[in-house]
Amino acid sequence: MKIGLYPGCSLTGSSREYNESLLAIAKEAGIELCQINDWNCCGATAAHNLNKELSLSLPARNLALAELEGMNELVVPCAACFNRLVMTQHELSEKNDLRKLISDKLQLPLKNEIKIYNVLQFLEKHIVPRLGQLVKNPMAFDVACYYGCLLVRPQNVMKSERFEDPMTMDVIMQKLGANAIDWPFKTECCGAGFSVSKIEIVGELSGKIVRNAVDHGAKAIVVACPMCHSNLDMRRPAIDKYLNMKMDIPVIYITQAIALAMGLTPHQAGIQRHFVPVNLPVNLPVNR
Amino acid sequence: MSKIGVFICHCGENISSTVDVVRVAEAAGELEGVAFSTDYKYMCSDPGQTMIKQAIKEKGLTGVVVGSCSPRMHEPTFRKACKEAGLNPFMCEMANLREHCSWVHDKSEATTQKAIDLVRTLVEKVKLNKPLFSIKVPVTKTALVIGGGIAGIQASLDIASAGHQVILVEKDPSIGGHMSQLSETFPTLDCSQCILTPRMVEVAQHPNIKLLTYAELEKLEGSIGSFKATIRKKAKSIDENLCNGCGTCTTKCPTKKIPSEFNTGLGMRTAIYVPFPQAVPNKPVIDKENCSYYQKGKCKVCEKVCPTGAIRFDQEDELVEIEVGAVVIATGFDIMQPSGFPEYGYGKYKDVITGLQFERLASASGPTLGEIRRPSDGKIPEKIVFVACAGSRDPAKGIPYCSKICCMYTAKHAMLYQHKVHHGKSYIFYMDIRAAGKNYEEFVRRAIVEDEVNYIRGRVSKIYEENGKLIVKGVDTLLSAKPVEIEADMVVLASAAVANPGAEELAQKMHVSYDSYSFFSEAHPKLKPVETNTAGIFLAGACQAPKDIPETVAQASGAASKVIILFSKDELSRDPLIAVVNRSPAPVFSTCVGCFLCASACPYQAIGEELITNRQGKVIKKVAKVNPGLCQGCGTCVAFCRSKSIDIQGYSNEQMCAEVVALLNND
Fold it and tell me: Which of A115, A238, B51, B152 is the most exposed place for a label (fewest CB within 10 A)?
């Protein structure tokens, strides 16, 4: 089975381990993820603040390229990229004139019919049904599933009923043998882009999330967004400073959790790339 | 030869702004059979009607077409004008140039052309119209009131006091409705039970009111003046004539841990129960779902202890048929359960409750006898947060409309809390304060100024528990514009008012319309607020839209007065737009062949048999016959009739065909 993959900038840089673990578990499940050839920036936060047409054209080009390669399904692991691609598809499907205009500018045909998945939707559809035989090393401990903002929003496009209390990641983690705790900070703001400009704000907002997860007994925080990960992991010094104590709870991507549960090595899951050392209360396989 | 008059109305500018009315009138004047054609600014006004009357008399018109608004608006007006000028009212038809044309199209040549087409079709129809005469229906001077809350109580008392019989049907074991659950009422803070229970007693004692509790409407047939209602009296499992309401059974019943509906789950009741001590009638019913005898076949404690031997385990539901002339729907509303808002933690944290639950906590008859104690540990909350619009005005997850009562009851809740817990602190998160009503704004001001309730303009984003406190995270959107966090002991959600579950089913049973929120629809939003689109069925209270008590009582009296007006006449006249089976001279008598497919299709059981006999009394032919009292003119029989022997008067196949042909021949 061949499914398209739009990595975006994060998965080639600060969250390489997200990409590595995703490709690793897809391979285990017999799924081939093919990167879109000549993909470009999704527009990130800059484009839609400055130029509407540009903010639609950038994601639309990626969608058009994926169509040209004959892809019917496209996985977008980064929550921010996913948001831009899905919003573009939504807007262009509602406004046919705009779709034609953008298609002309790009000089590419655009049917706008490709199915776009974020990582959770991809896992639910293609990995979870195969998990039964693949889980060899259950993650038998308490985890806090942290969703952040963009995975489940906007509500009217995502049609998610429980966007204040999403459960998809919790369900997947339960299937890996973990106990996904009931905690109130699932969708609180991590500080997002302040990671660059006002680190102390990230320290406070992410600090509250980390503390709440620890207070509720979590041994690891599970995420599915590069931004959330870098704020909870890379900005741990700012978090520790705000909380005035050293927090050592690791932050792992859901794809890494699945990789480890499948018995892949920590190195295959890419957990050596984290700032906060990943010490989980289970024996991780050393070799395969 | 027809002499038809065509009258085109501008409807102020409603029609004339997009339709060239002068041209429509000119074009109509050139149609074959049209003897007179004109236009006027307001055809429904007195000068407009006079214009029609004069034309009928002076030109000797045989038919009239008024091109104006919907016939639902003014057909009676224009038909009455025709009648006054000596023309049979059913020779007058309306072309709907407003709802079907000017309101839905932009100004253009095509819009004017459509208006001309609409007028032409009606002219062709009128040519085939025949004079018809109203059907007289006797009025059964008994009213059926459905729902025994304050709306149903008020309507019943008013109708009964005018000297008419009332049958009041209530689905619960007692009348009283939501009002009986309330603590004090805004804006006077008088005790809800103190003002309601005397009226409940009055209902029970009124000689003209027959009270059927624990009963529901099963079926409604017939029409205004002569409905036939079937009521299901659910088995109470007691003999009401023998029971003296001593209460021994309810104290001895061993199944005691059933969440009480009356106390919104904050208190418990037994399986044989009276919902609350002031219930009317004050006699128990057995809740079969929770009774050990019904579920497991063992117990019968109530039967053993009953001093009058009134328990009847073998009692079954009973269906009673009653004849009534009018119906008042007063089925009230329900509270939206805030489970769709996981961020508020309702259902997860015991101390997050709904406004209705707070009413029970604050009520002297409630589970805490009026002391404000939180459900989790019974402690008196030191800090309490009220969340207004918990579901209302929220198109994304709740309901888009304003529930209307919450601003006032939330102010009242905070006030009652401050009166009972003097050192406590109360906070209200709100979007806007909607306090329109007599003495309402003053009441809210009193809460803010005298009782020092802290109003925070902003929404709550999350409620979670930390160290035994409920952390309420929200935002203050006024000058300070910053996030707010309150460590509260209890949170009260002003959950939205929604239609009752089952409202749609009831509406379908009664053939009345309802809106997209399942509230019953009034016949006109301004001028017919208590009528439904079905004649003889009226609305009272919150089943039409969320309402407070004063408004509910006013509407209930309004509905009652409509019933009393209806009952002031001994007979009614009904439009004769009903089905008839054709008759012709001998030897055919009728083209009806007596297959009675029509009878099997009729949803109103209005079609019977007629035997045609010769002079010697010998039956020659058996044909169908429509009972004009039962026929509703739906036309189903017409579609079924294979020999085209049945037609709706005023809407015959021939007339419909003439309209279609006129539309197609637009050269």
Answer: A115
